[in-house]
Specification:
Keywords: FAD, Flavoprotein. The chain is α+β, with helices and mostly antiparallel strands and 468 residues long. The chain is built from 16 helices and 19 strands.
């Protein structure tokens, strides 16, 4: 091992080979601070060539590699296990904007580029990169691609797989595949790009990407609507899609439990309604015509929903500040949950038409099994993705409730499967759901995944113990 580390120092420079426990600690703790792994070193290459050279050294020494971006994942996908044999490969120094082409509507960036910086670069040339996440100030493009991130605008623009045209990847053997092609049509064989997107670093290391840009909207409008049930929210979605079509960008379901937690822990944020309601939907329109056109469509949606008794009340943001305040309510939900205490998180998806029935039936099953548990349900209703989180009853200690996580997961995941859904919508599997997924994928599907892994990474050095 000392010879391996000496070779890494020669290649990268001593300052980019971290071995002291205190300096490695931020790279070894997961985002929720519930798990701490161990590593032989944290390696910080500054170029694709250095990544490739490091991978070759790891091959020769049989050192497992854990690729890491902003380390904002929620399923233990970007931290090593506790064996201490792996090297964490931090890509944060690969953070350059390589090219921007507003005519081709593409942006080429390195994997360590922070998402927010990519958004800013798109705005600089009058374009939009639409991926939007709560962690956009710290998550990286490589991590977004490795987990096929979704976010709040999937309804209109799709997830990260839909937003990427080409990749540069270092293979498990240390070769560099340059697939940085900004083409919408390229039907010349197997789609290698899609193989690496969503693979969580288990098949290779993404080092750069060509991203799709879009014309910047002329207007963005935000509204918060209040209603009684998730069924009402689905009816509201139908109305919004009928009236707005493609300009409907965001459609977020938020339960009253979520917003009460936000107001409790962040009292500077206030609900814009005099009385609480059981459910809310945050709507965003992005219009390429004009603000007046967008406003007329939004008013038509709200008027029709009120007339049909689908919603009980609504507020429309009249300024950028008010829009940000409404989005702040949504974005502070995970932070409020953390302040409230430990909770059991689920990142699930079901067909949109099944969401209301899923929520109602799963809520009932959980209350029967765990009386008094609190359902902190929110998420991207427009694309069928819910963050279906369960908090302890008010009179039960968090630590006691967390011990029952396997039982809670079984109730939730079994019902997700029954409704034709997925137990991981946008967070990935990582190590957290690696074993859980075997309950729901067929033997054929799992074997096909293993065959791909074995073919590309026969030494099992690429993020071992994740996904499979």
């Amino acid at each position: 091992m000392s010879n391996f580390l000496d070779q890494c120092r020669t290649l990268l420079g001593t300052q980019y080979v971290i071995t002291s426990e205190s300096e490695m600690e931020p790279y070894l703790i997961d985002w929720r601070r519930r798990f701490t792994g161990k590593a032989c070193a944290v390696l910080r290459p500054g170029s694709t060539d250095e990544v490739a050279a490091i991978v070759k050294l790891c091959n020769a020494a049989r050192v497992p590699i854990v690729p890491q971006g902003g380390n904002t994942g929620l399923v233990l996908g970007s931290v090593p296990d506790q064996s201490g044999t792996a090297a964490v490969l931090s890509l944060t120094r690969l953070n350059r904007i390589r090219a921007v082409d507003p005519v081709n509507n593409t942006l080429t960036v390195e994997a360590g580029c922070i998402l927010e910086r990519a958004q800013e670069e798109a705005r600089r040339v009058g374009r939009l990169f639409p991926l939007s996440l709560a962690a956009q100030g710290s998550c990286t493009i490589g991590g977004n691609l490795s987990t096929n991130a979704g976010g709040t605008a999937v309804l209109r623009y799709g997830n990260m797989r839909d937003l990427c045209l080409g990749l540069e990847v270092v293979t498990p053997q240390g070769d560099i595949w340059n697939g940085l092609r900004g083409l919408r049509k390229d039907n010349t064989g197997y789609d290698l790009r899609d193989l690496f997107i969503g693979a969580e670093g288990t098949l290779g290391i993404i080092t750069a990407a060509v991203l799709k840009l879009f014309p910047a909207p002329k207007a963005q409008l935000t509204a918060l609507a209040a209603m009684q049930t998730p069924e009402d929210a689905l009816n509201f979605l139908t109305i919004a899609q009928d009236e707005c079509g493609a300009i409907l960008t965001g459609f977020e379901l938020i339960s009253d439990v979520c917003l009460q937690l936000v107001i409790k822990h962040f009292p500077h944020l206030q609900l814009p309604f005099a009385q609480p309601h059981l459910q809310y939907v945050l709507v965003e329109l992005s219009d390429s015509e004009s603000e007046d056109h967008a406003m007329s469509m939004l008013e038509a949606v709200i008027s029709r929903a009120l007339e049909e008794s689908v919603i009980e009340d609504a507020v429309v943001a009249s300024s950028i500040a008010q829009s940000r305040a409404l989005w702040a309510l949504r974005e502070h939900i995970p932070l409020a949950q953390a302040e409230e205490g430990k909770n059991i998180k689920h990142d699930i998806s079901v067909p949109i038409s099944n969401i209301a029935n899923f929520i109602r039936e799963t809520d009932d099953l959980l209350q029967q099994a765990f009386p008094g548990c609190r359902m902190v349900t929110f998420g991207h209703l427009g694309d069928g993705n819910l963050h279906y989180n369960v908090s302890a009853p008010v009179d039960v200690q968090d630590e006691t409730f967390i011990l029952r996580q396997p039982e809670v997961n079984r109730v939730v995941h079994d019902n997700v499967h029954r409704f034709g859904g997925s137990i991981s919508a946008e967070h990935g599997l990582g190590a957290l759901k690696r074993n859980e997924i075997t309950q729901y994928k067929s033997d054929v599907e799992l074997q096909l995944m293993r065959n791909i892994k074995n073919a590309l990474d026969p030494l099992n050095l690429m993020n071992p113990g994740k996904i499979l």
